[in-house]
Amino acid sequence: MVYYSTQFLSLLIILVTSGELLIHQRLHLLTTRLYELFLFLCFVAVWLDIACVYAEINPEKFSIAENNGIHRLYFITICIIHWVIFLYMDAIYNRSGKHNTVYHALRMVPLIISLIYVISGSINYHSASDGLYAYGAVVDATYLTIFSYYLMILYLVIKHRSKTSSLHKYDIYICMTLWLGIAIYQYLTPEMQLDAVCLSILILFFYILYENIKEYTDNEITNCFSRKSFERIIDEYFHDSKRTFWVINFTLQNVDSIRSTYGQKACMQSIEASIKPMLDFQKQHFFKTLDYGFGIVLDSEETLKLWYSRYRAAYRKIILEGWTIQPTYFVCSVECPKLATNTEELINLLNFCKDSFEAQTDPSIRQIDASIAEKGKYIGKVERVVQKALDEDGFEVFYQPIIDATTQKCTAAEALVRLKDKTTLGFISPEIFIPIAEDKGMISQLGDQVFNKVCNFVKKNNLLNSGLRFIDVNLSGLQMADRDLTYRLIQTVKNFNLRPDFFNLEITETASVFSDKNVTDNIDRLKKQGFKFSMDDFGTGYSNFSSMASIKYDLIKIDKSIIWKAFDPDGEQFMKVLFSMISMIHSLGAIVVAEGVEKENQAIFLRESGIELFQGFFYSQPLPEEKFLDY
Questions:
Q1: Quick one: which H or E segment has residue 233?
Q2: What is the rounded distance in angstroms from the CA atom of residue 187 to the CA atom of residue 210?
Q3: Which conformational region is residue 321 in: left (phi greater than 0), alpha (psi within -120 to 50 degrees), or beta?
Q4: Rounded distance between C-alpha atoms, residue 318 and residue 323, angstroms
Q5: Which of 59, 183, 355, 424 has the fewest CB atoms within 10 Å, i.e. is most exposed?
Q6: What is the pLDDT of residues 480-498, one digit of tens each?
Q7: Which of 195, 149, 190 has the alpha carbon at shortest distance from 46?
Q8: 562-577: per-residue pLDDT in tens?
Q9: CA distance 171 to 577
Q10: Nearest-CA neighbor of 34 among 107, 141, 112?
Q11: How far is the C-alpha of 553 from the C-alpha of 106, rounded, in Å?
């Protein structure tokens, strides 16, 4: 039995690993299928190795042709195994699997050459007290194949080293060193019979590093595969250009309310509880697709129709630790590659739909159409343009004159950020790119760049001594909630040797802004430093009268919608509202600015009504720096 010890150990490892694969859910990935083929071939190779040893120990029981046949089959299997190992590593590093015909042909060359030699080459046997082994052209061709594919895999590892984590990188190098070392040692000392040992090391290495179920499953949601697994399987689906498939995505929409009431863990438990009753339906794999989203991938239109008619998730109440929670979902289906042609496009589209639509109150699935997909792609392009503009200082600042109602002269200006893509998108409205910057965490960097440009413009043109009273600079609610905002603004003003009281910080009127303690703390600190504040768009959305009294704004801008409606033929009620606003703002000691002044009769009437400052196209649209200086 001593001759078979390494072979039986290898068989045990193969059986245990195969058992692990059968117990746990597996993804239908190319790499998984190749690993299963690798295990099967190793199983066959080990039994053939045992047969070879048995034939050498008992030569009287086998004819020469039978003995040669067993050995040739064994070496053919070893050659194929190393070809499969290369295919496996190639699939690991090239997720898309896209190769040209020449590359596919080159991958086969070492295998084809070795098979020719193994089938037709000479083979001899050594049987003595020092060991049993085969030698000759067949063996040499097999080892040449092993070394050829080893070098090809080494090239893959080096070429794609940037894609590999440092920990995995060292594991790969250690495994390849052992693999090469054992192969060389076995070739130089063939009586050692270490082939099975080498196969066992490779089986365990690939399983632990790539096929371990922990590599696929999500850490927070049981019975759900990870986001990484979702991207891997989608990559393979997209690679098959003739394959149509659908992704049904469930996004938890009331995350904030669940998290604030029950904690972060309850969000994941809600998703897990929503998945549970659906697990047996059509035996589908569930994937984590977004931060608070999960989904399935379907490759059959019949199965898709079943989901449309039978699924239930959106209205289920869930009991968690004694609490009754009702998670709400936005559920949609996306047909690929019709609406998304690669994984990045699909993820962007799912994120766009999550942000653009409310949760359903019934168990319906919204079918995403081409118009929604195109809008999502446009938003994705804008996001990339915004990021590029931030990286390359590509934003421009325009200035809209603010007019003194009495003198009719420019007495101030509002700084307005502008973005233009010079390649395809052209001018991009701030109403589009500002929300994207806020949503993607880029708004603070954008705000800092704008304020730095404004300060540079003021300093370069000596606007402190030009007769202008102030420059308006817009701040979003997310910027105001940034704890470091005060420090950055003060430092920027100091760097340009300017006065804080020349800058009027303009805040849009929203309830969420003023409910944040960081916002009110920042306002207090900045006012103490000399900065002025104005409320923008007063009269729309949320009217926070308590904040108007507590913050003490220097200016309050009445939104253009109120101005325009007051001058409509049937705008009598709006005119009364306008008068009340003017009176209230003056009673608080603030200056009134009328936005959207577009006609002379509006300017005359508003001046007589007591409004001090005007802003609108009647006087000027926003101007680039040079034209503003000439205004």
A1: helix 227-239
A2: 29
A3: left
A4: 8
A5: 424
A6: 888 899 999 999 999 999 9
A7: 195
A8: 888 888 888 888 888 8
A9: 72
A10: 107
A11: 73
Q: Which of 96-100, 174-178, 220-224, 467-471 has the highest mean pLDDT?
A: 467-471
**pLDDT tens per residue across span 428-458:** 888 889 888 888 889 999 999 999 999 999 9
CB 230 within 8 A of CB 336: no
**pLDDT, tens only, 280-290:** 665 678 899 99
- State the Cα–Cα distance between residues 548 and 550, nearest whole angstrom: 6
Least confident window among 35-39, 52-56, 246-250, 413-417: 52-56
Greater model confidence, 73 or 360: 73
The pLDDT value given to residue 170: 76
Structure tokens at 374: 């195109």
CA 478/CA 447 separation, integer angstroms: 10
- Measured CA to CA, the distance from residue 212 to residue 220 in angstroms comes to 17
Helix (H) or strand (E) holding 332: strand 329-336
Closest alpha carbon to 44 in 70, 19, 16: 70
Residue 388 in tokens? 């590029």
DSSP 287: E
Q: What is the chain's percent helix, strand, coil content, to nearest 5? A: 60, 15, 25
pTM (2 d.p.):
0.69
Residue range 325-339, pLDDT digits in tens? 778 888 889 999 999
* 537-563 pLDDT tens trace: 777 755 556 566 667 888 988 888 888
Calpha distance 67→54 (Å, rounded):
10
Residue in the structure block whose two tokens are 């997209």: 238
The closest alpha carbon to 145, from 88, 86, 70, belongs to 86
Angle made by CA atoms 309, 313, 317, in degrees to the nearest 5: 140
**Amino acid in position 67:** N
Question: For residue 332, which of 344, 317, 350, 352 has the smallest C-alpha distance?
Answer: 350
Number of neighbouring beta carbons within 10 Å of residue 455: 22
CA 373 to chain centre: 17
Q: Environment class of residue 242 by beta-carbon count within 10 Å: exposed (0-12), middle (13-18) or buried (19+)?
A: exposed
Using CA atoms, how far apart are residues 445 and 437, in angstroms rounded to an integer? 9
Which residues, at least 6 apart from 488, have a Cβ–Cβ distance to it below 8 Å? 448
**What is the pLDDT, as a whole number, of residue 511?**
42
Other Cβ atoms less than 10 A from the Cβ of 168: the count is: 14
- Extract the tokens encoding 350: 């799912």
Angstrom distance (rounded) from CA 18 to CA 14: 6
Cα–Cα distance, 514 to 507 (Å, whole number): 10
User: Whose CA is closest to 299, among 234, 368, 228?
Assistant: 234
In the structure, what pLDDT confidence band is assigned to residue 140 with cuts at 50, 70 and 90?
Answer: very high
Instruction: Using CA atoms of 458, 462, 466, 469 in order, give the dihedral in degrees to the nearest 10.
Output: 40
Burial class (CB in 10 A: 0-12, 13-18, 19+), 500: middle
User: d(Cα 527, Cα 465) in Å, to the nearest integer?
Assistant: 22
Question: What is the bridge-based pairing of β-strands 555-558 and 532-538?
Answer: parallel
What is the enclosing helix (H) or strand (E) of 477? Answer: helix 477-480
